[in-house]
Amino acid sequence: EVDARVVQPRVVSLLPSATEMLCAIGGEHLMVGRSHEDDFPSTIVDRPVLTASNMPSGMTSAEIDAEVSSAGREGRELYRVLGPELRRLRPTHVLTQDLCKVCSVSPTDVFAAIEGMNPEPVVLSFNPFTLDAVLEDMNRLGVALGLAHEAAEATNKLRDRVRQVSTVLTGTRPSVAFLEWVDPVFVGGHWTPELVELAGGTHIIGVKSKKSFRVAREEITTADPDFVVLAPCGLTLEETLREAQRERNGWLRSLRAVREGRAACVDGNAMFNRPGPRLVDALSWLSSWMRGEVTEVTSSFPCAAWPSEEVVKRPRDIEDFGDLHAAAVSRGELFYKDPETSYQVSTELCMLRRGWCCGSGCRHCPYGHFNLSHRPRENKITESRLLGVGKTCAQGSGPLVVWTGPNVVVRPGSVVCVVFGGAYGAISDGTPVPTVMDWALREKVELLLVPREDFPAALRLVQPRAWIVDETACDGRDEWVQKASSVCRL
C-alpha cells in the first residue's frame, strides 16, 4: 500500500461524489484524473477524463430505463474506463464505488484497467447508505491521503450544520414524496428518507438505509403527500423540468402538492443523489423550502417550481395578475396566491433575491426568461438586467463588450452590453433580444441588457476590468461610454 506520508498521492477519481469529498477535505491539488461526469467544483474540469458512457444522449427517463434494463439482460456495461489514459497518469489512489451499477463504472472494469501496474494503486470504494456513512467516508479518505486533520475539520463543520437544521424542527411533520425517477416511478432510498426526516418531514414510502425502489403510481396518488420533490438521479435541472412537463397532464398533475404549489424540481445530478458534502446543502434547502423560508441556501439552490401550466406559464390576459403582483411587490412579499387556482406564485422580488433565471418560464420572471430553452420566451425585460448563464448569478466583473452583431468578438468571461429599443431589438443592428439571448447561451457569456432610455444608469451593474468596443480597448469608463453610445446610435 502507498504511504501517503512519504509519496505525495496522485489521485484518480472515477466518482463525482468522491471528487467532491476530496476537494472538501483540501485534496484537490492531488487529483490528476476524473470521470466524464465530474463537474464540481468547476476548478477540476481541466483534469483528464478517464471514463465514458456507452449510452446514447438525449433520451427520456423511460428510454433510459429501457436501455438500462436491456444492458442488464445482455450483460453490457453502461460505462467504460479508458485504461491506457489512466495508466499513463500513474495514480497512487483510485476512487470508485460499488453502490450502484447504473451510476458509474463497475469495480471489475477499474481493476482490469490497473492490472499490471507497478506499483499497483490503492483502490478506495465508497458505498454509503446514510448521511453519517458519507461523513465517515470523508474521514476515511482523509486518513488514506494524509489529510486526516483536514477531513476531521470538514466533517465536524458539516455535522454542526446538520445539528443547526435539527434545532428548528417544530410541530407536525408534513408528508413528502421524493421521486428519484419518474418513468417508471422510483422513490428515493439510501440517505434520502433520512434527509427528509432531518428536515422535518416524513417520507411516505422510502425506507431509510435501503436502496431506492420502484413503486406504482397509485401508491403516490393514494398517499397524496404534502410536498413533492422530483430529483431524478443523473438528470440536470433542465432535463428534470422537461420530464415534469411530459408528465404534466397525467397523474402527477392530480397530486395536491403540485396543484397547490408545493412541488419542486431539483438538479438531481448535483444534489441529493451524490453522496458527498453537498448532501448537507440539500438538507438545508429541503428544511427551508418546506417551511416557506427564503434563505441564502434556497436562493442559490439548483431547483425550480414545478412547471405546471397554471403556475408557470404566463397567461394571455395578465392585467389582473399584474395588479395582484404589483400589490404583493409593494408590500415586499415574495409570493401571492392565484385567485383562480389557489396556487402560490413567486413575485419578481423572490426571483431577484435568487439572482438568476431558473429556466422554467415563471410568470413574473424579471430576467426575460433568459435561460428558458424549451419554449418561446414570453416575458420582456423592462429595466437594466445583468444575466448569468445557467444556475449562476451574473458577476459583471469581466471585460465589457458592446454588442454589434452575432459576429462580435468576445473574450473569456466577457459581459456583452446590448442596448435595445421599443421594438425589443438591439439598437446597433436590430437583432431581436431573444436571438441575442440564444447567442449568449451558446457562447456562455453574461449579458448586460439595457433599455435605450436607461443606458446612462445601467453601468452601475458592472465593475469591469476592461472596457472594450469591438476589439478596441478603451482607456476608461468615459471613453467606453462615448464609443458605445456611437455604436448603439444613442
From TrEMBL:
Coiled-coil portions: none
Boundaries of every Fe/B12 periplasmic-binding domain copy: 10-294
Superkingdom to which the source organism belongs: Eukaryota
InterPro entries reported in the protein's UniProt record: ABC_transptr_periplasmic_BD, DUF5522, Vitamin_B12-ABC_binding
The protein, known as: Fe/B12 periplasmic-binding domain-containing protein
